[in-house]
Structures are given as C-alpha cells and as structure tokens.
Write a structure and sequence with these properties.
This protein is α+β, with helices and mostly antiparallel strands. The protein is elongated.
C-alpha cells in the first residue's frame, strides 16, 4: 500500500516537471521548435528524391548500355551472316562470265557452216557462217543449235561443226625472216628457201614442188618489184577480177580476186585466184591463194591468215 502511494507520488512529480518545462518555454522558443520541425520534413523528402533519381539514372545507363551492346552484337552477327552467305565479288564475276560463255560456240568447220531456217539438213539456208564465227546459243533441238551470230542472223546450225573453244586461239605462229603469220594447227607448212616462199595447206596434196606455178594453196612470197607491177602482171592471167585497197599489218595493200584464164602453164582455167600485195622496204610481200574449180573452198581461212599477218620489225 505504501509502495503504491510512493509510485503515484513520483508520477505526479514527473508530470509537474513536464508542465513546468512547458510553462518555462517562451513563445519565441516554441515557434523556433515548430519551424525546425517543419523545415526538417522537406529536407528529408528532398534527400529521398535525390537518391531515387540517382537509382533511376543508374538503371537507365545500364539499360541503354545493354541495348547498345545487343544492337551492336546483332549488327555484327548480321554482317557476318551477309559476309558468309554472299560470295566474294571476284567469284561472282567469274560465275557470271562462265554463265555467259556457257551458251557460246564457234564455227569449227574450215569450209564454213550453213545456218538454216529449221533444224533439218534440207531446210532453206539463211547464210553461210565463216570459220571461227562466234555464235550465241538460244536452245538445242536434236543435233542442231538455234542461235545468232554477231550480225544478228538467227537460225539452226549443226552441233557437229561447232566448238566451245575459239579455233583461232589454237593456231600456230610461223616467224619468217620478213613476216610472222598464223595458220591452223592441223595444217602443213613448207618453206622454199631459194624462192623466199612459204606455203600452207591442209594436206600434202595442197603443197606442190617449190618454184612451181601452183606451189601451195596459200603462199607468202617476198620479191623485188612494186605493187602496181605485180597487180598488172597478175591481171593479165585473169578472165574476170575485182580489186580493192585494204590495210594489212598497218600497211596499205592491194587485193585482187578473180578467175584464171588457163593455159599451157599455170592454174587450171576457172580457178579462183586471190592476191594481196603490200610493200616491205624496197621489196613487196605477196599473199596468194589458188583454188581449182573442183577444189574445197578455203578462202575464209586465207582471209583470217591475212588478218593475222604481220610484217617483221
């Protein structure tokens, strides 16, 4: 009982002290305390906002960095995929070239090849394609190709007489004292040193004795004289002829073509004669072609030999 009384007395004293403390505070002191409490609140909020802003900023940086990394990674991956799937430029060009050349053939027949309206050996002939002519294939039909030449002629021609390789690329080069000439790889050559003549032909029959009137099918000869003198002399042995000015190996030349009159000496009457004459220093070089009436026509070969002829030096 006494103990409870003592505790009650202590509580009363404590509350009196608190009341006394409040009573002893002046109005100004109370206002300062209130203001301090009010100021403390916004500072605490401001600090929280600053921390939140920093956290959001860090998250934004991390997210943007991760996005850039993923974008760069995907970009590199796409680049690698493109580089792996796309063939190199050189390979592409080679492939395109090979595709273009796969539908190209050349006339391999030395006497030419007939281009016809239909895929038949009895069909109407459109034109005769010269040896070495480049042809573009459009389609195949049995033993024929349908294609075009460089002049725009379109028709059918026999596969048998064409080649995937340009036959002129396989020609042999003969280097003489005064000139260089190319001729078919399967042809024969015969040189007559005493007459400064070189003959070319497809076989032994086409190559005769040196210094004979008909030495070879195609002959190159170096001799004294002038173009005019040689042309005038040759014309006298021709029944009909045509002449024209051409350029051979960068040099002015004369071309004379006609049919021979025939006689006791010389080619058979009606033989085809073609002469190309050009000057070489004080001499002349004559390229000649002689074909008998019943002989095989190799004039296209002769024309190609003339085109590829070059003077020495």
């Amino acid at each position: 009982m006494d103990k409870e009384k003592e505790e009650n007395e202590e509580e009363e004293v404590s509350s009196i002290r608190e009341d006394d403390k409040e009573e002893t505070e002046t109005p100004e002191e109370k206002e300062e305390v209130i203001e301090a409490k009010e100021v403390a609140k916004p500072r605490k909020k401001g600090k929280s906002r600053l921390i939140l802003f920093i956290i959001l900023l860090v998250l934004a940086v991390l997210l943007s960095g991760g996005g850039i990394y993923l974008w760069q990674k995907n970009k590199n991956k796409a680049k690698q995929t493109t580089e792996m799937t796309a063939p190199p430029k050189e390979e592409t060009e080679k492939t395109e070239e090979s595709k273009e050349e796969s539908n190209v053939v050349y006339v391999s027949s030395q006497i030419g090849l007939n281009m016809r309206k239909t895929a038949s050996l009895t069909a109407e002939i459109i034109t005769v394609l010269k040896y070495g002519t480049k042809l573009t294939i459009e389609k195949e039909e049995g033993s024929f190709y349908l294609g075009k030449d460089g002049s725009g002629n379109e028709g059918y021609f026999a596969k048998e007489f064409t080649s995937k390789t340009d036959p002129l690329s396989e020609w042999i080069t003969y280097n003489g004292k005064n000139y260089a000439v190319k001729y078919p790889k399967d042809w024969l050559k015969k040189t007559c040193e005493d007459s400064a003549s070189t003959g070319f032909g497809p076989d032994e029959v086409s190559l005769q004795l040196c210094n004979s009137e008909k030495f070879a099918l195609i002959t190159m000869t170096t001799m004294e004289g002038t173009k005019a003198e040689y042309i005038a002399d040759t014309k006298s042995g021709l029944d009909t002829f045509t002449e024209s000015n051409i350029t051979v190996s960068g040099t002015a030349a004369m071309r004379l073509e006609g049919k021979t009159k025939g006689g006791e000496v010389g080619p058979q009457a009606g033989s085809t004669s073609i002469s190309v004459v050009l000057e070489s220093g004080s001499d002349i070089v004559v390229l000649s072609y002689i074909q008998s009436p019943s002989g095989t026509d190799y004039s296209d070969i002769f024309d190609l030999i003339v085109e590829n002829f070059s003077l020495a030096g």
